[in-house]
Structures are given as C-alpha cells and as structure tokens.
Design brief:
alpha/beta; TIM Barrel; 8-stranded parallel beta sheet; two-stranded antiparallel ribbon; 13 helices; 14 strands; about 40% helix; globular
Length: about 450
C-alpha cells in the first residue's frame, strides 16, 4: 500500500508573518507555476549529506562556520563577489579547523538570501510613505513607488541569480581555488599586514609547520584541494520556497531544493504560524533563530513540531541574544533542551543582537560586542558541558566600513566611507579574520 502523500500546502491556512502584499495575485500565480517547472538548485542527496555533517556537530564532533551577506542583491551575483566571500570563509575555516581539531562545516548565507524581515511594513521619508524594502526578491532598494512595489517577477530573478552563485561557488570550491596551502598563504599575508597580527602569529606559524610536515611526508589528500560547501538562506517568502519544493525520487520525501539548509527567523517562528508548519513538512536540515526572550518551553515545543523523531542533524538552534544578555538568557535554554534528550546543534549568531544606530544614522555593530557574545556562548556551553557548535555571521569579502572596531580599526566617523550593505551592517574581510582567530583561541581554551 502506498504511503499517504504529504500535504505541502497546509501552511496556507495559517497566518504567515512577513509576507509581501503582492498587488497582482494572478502575476504571482504565473511566476510560481514557472518556478515549479524549473530544475532544482540543490539535490536531496546533498541535503542529506549536510544533515550527516550537522549530526556530527550535535554530537560535539564538528563546528559550523555559516556566513555571508545580510541580504544578497542581484547586482552582487558576480564572479568577483562570490570569489571574495568564499575566500574569506575558507581563510576563517582553516584557522578554526587547526585550532579546534574538528572538521568545519562550511555553509554560506548565499544563493537565496534575497529577502529580509522588517520591523515596519512601510518607510517614511520627507512625509512620503512607501512599502519597506524587503530584499531584492520582493522589491527594489530605491525610495520610489515603482521600486518599492512588490513584483513577483523578482522571484524568478532570485532563482536565476541563485543558480549563477551556486555555479560559481561549485567551480571555485572544486577547481583548485580552495587549495589548503594557497588559503594558508592568504592568511599569512593577513597576519603580516594586520596590526593585530602579532597576536595571531603563533597559530599561523603552527599551521605552517603542520602543512610543511604533511608536504615532507608527501601526504597530499584530495581534501587539501577541494572543500565541501553548502548553501543556506532564511526561507522567508513561502511562495518561493514552496514552489522549489520537490519530492525526492529516491525516498518519496519532500525537500526544499532552493538551498541545502533553510532557517526560520526570530520574527516568523510562531508555533501556530505558516513558516513552522511548512518547515515541519520538508526534509532538509533546518535552523531556527532564537532571541533572548525565548523560553525553554518555546524551544521544546519547536523541537516537538520540527523534529518529532529526534533525528540528529535535522534541527539547529541559532541563538541571537546580544552580548549583554547571552550569559543570562542562554544557560537555562541549553540546559532544559539537553535535559530533554533532544539532539540539536547550537550555533551562535553574534550579529543580530548587537545592532545600534551611530550618530550619523548608520546601523552598525561593534566587533568587540560580536566577540563578547561569542565568548559568552562558549562560556555557557563550557559550564554546562555541552558543545558550542558554530558561529553564524554576516560578512563580506570586501573592505567595507559597516561595523566598527577590528585590527584595522574602523571608527563611527568612517562608516560613510564604504557603507554598501542592502540591509544590516556586515563584517569586512579583516574583521572576519580577526573574529576567526579569536574564536580559534576560545575553542582551544574550552
């Protein structure tokens, strides 16, 4: 007897937070129909592979490095941008791999991170009120009625832009660009140039000696030349992710093939809401963002709904508490979840709880606050005997001036120089590498 087909549209009967007000429903239907006929961006087998890697994280045997743009833009899907983001991620990963002595699971906030939740549905400038910018998947950044009107054709552009980005990422990670010795050489350049370099010299020298030893032994495994790289995004616009959900021919199970991993944001994780319902039906590894107000009861209810079979690697909690709150808010949460026997991976998002507005009006973050939240995350897990499973950051490979601090210090007066983000402030390449070396120190000491 064949199994009952899974209802992938049950979410449509529930309240869906943060969805655009599409002006023409028939245009949306046409776009969704076209998306349903397009090839998958990723494959179910790759999603299962990532689930296995995240199961190792949940067991304390691996560490996640997840990062990329706050909000991708269509204009940003260029070879240079993708290469520079990957280069920064790989540079961070080699430091963390050596210091942590565990595999680093590399996940990009790429190839789908085109939509953003907003605290207000509209924006007012000079007495003019327009819809808020919700990311290139929905509307345009320019403050005009034409740009800010949600346009479902943008969902198709998001798909094609994601395909280009994934194609480039696969080429770079499999085509020799990710060679371990080359990545280490880039880090040596960073250490030599960075004012904070002296602090990182010892670790860089140790990595150099380890690579020299391997070379002397003529050890040259395939893993030195290519890397596993996975894509992820917040699955915010449900019409898009539902249209890219396919039933796997091997297993008969549904996967959201727009990304290897998708997550639910802090603003859309209502237990009786559409996002949680949709995520409960797909078989990808999934994440949920948890802010400082999350109760243990909230977390346990999400586990019951999203991972009732307690499958390792299926569910990751991404905590975003803020540096001033993490040491108070996180312990009870982790303790109660661990006591329940739930197999979840814990990742720290040290960006979203630490945003403030500079006198110039720019949204920004202090690198010291980001580092302090990561330190607090490690301290909590060390005290409880649990595994700090990874970090989730917003960064770019460019030398932007969006966050303050770092080895090449950016001060608030510098923010206007290269403030290029489409939404939230990102760490630049130098700040990201500062963070990697500091996290490596934390991992070693824990």
């Amino acid at each position: 007897m064949s199994a009952e087909p899974i209802n992938l549209d049950s979410w449509r009967d529930l309240p869906a937070a943060q969805q655009p007000d599409w002006p023409d429903p028939s245009a949306l239907e046409r776009v969704v129909s076209e998306l349903q006929g397009l090839p998958p961006l990723v494959f179910a087998g790759e999603c299962d592979e990532l689930k296995d890697r995240l199961a190792a994280v949940a067991r304390g045997e691996a560490f996640v490095l997840q990062g990329g743009d706050c909000a991708e833009t269509f204009a940003g899907a260029t070879a240079d941008n993708v290469r520079d983001k990957l280069k920064t991620l790989l540079q961070m990963a080699i430091v963390l791999t050596y210091a942590g002595r565990v595999p680093i699971v590399k996940i990009g906030r790429v190839a789908g991170q085109f939509a953003k939740p907003r605290s207000k549905a509209t924006e007012v400038r000079g007495g003019v009120e327009l819809p808020a910018y919700r990311g290139d998947m929905v509307n345009g950044f320019d403050f005009t009625p034409e740009a800010r009107t949600p346009d479902p054709a943008r969902l198709l552009r998001a798909y094609h832009s994601s395909a280009v980005t994934l194609n480039l990422a696969r080429a770079f990670t499999k085509g020799g660009y990710a060679d371990l010795r080359q990545v280490h050489a880039w880090n040596q350049d960073f250490v030599a140039e960075s004012p904070a370099g002296r602090r990182y010299e010892k670790l860089a020298r140790e990595i150099d000696q380890a690579l020299a030893f391997m070379h002397a032994c003529r050890a040259d495994p395939e893993e030195f030349h290519t890397v596993e790289f996975y894509s992820s995004h917040e699955a915010l616009i449900l019409d898009y992710d539902r249209a890219l959900t396919r039933v796997d021919s091997r297993t008969g199970l549904p996967y959201d093939v727009s990304a290897h991993m998708v997550w639910i944001g802090e603003r859309s994780r209502q237990l009786d809401g559409a996002h949680v319902e949709f995520f409960s039906r797909i078989r990808n590894p999934i994440g949920v963002k948890l802010g400082h107000s999350t109760t243990p009861e909230d977390a346990l209810a999400l586990i019951d709904k999203l991972n009732p079979d307690n499958e390792p690697g299926r569910l990751t909690f991404i905590t975003r508490m803020g540096a001033s709150r993490v040491r108070d808010a996180l312990p009870t949460l982790v303790d109660k979840v661990q006591a329940s026997g739930a197999k979840v991976a814990w990742i720290c998002d040290p960006m979203h709880g630490n945003t403030f507005e500079a006198p110039s009006g720019h949204k920004t973050r202090r690198l010291d606050d980001v580092l302090d939240e990561v330190a607090g995350f490690f301290e909590v897990h060390q005290a409880l005997g649990t595994h700090p499973g990874g970090i989730h950051i917003e960064f770019t490979g460019d030398d932007v001036t969006e966050c303050v601090g770092g080895g090449h210090p950016i001060v608030e007066e510098d923010l206007a120089l290269r403030y290029e983000t489409a939404c939230d402030p990102r760490l630049n390449r130098s700040q990201s590498l500062d963070l990697a070396f500091r996290v490596a120190e934390l991992y070693r000491s824990s």
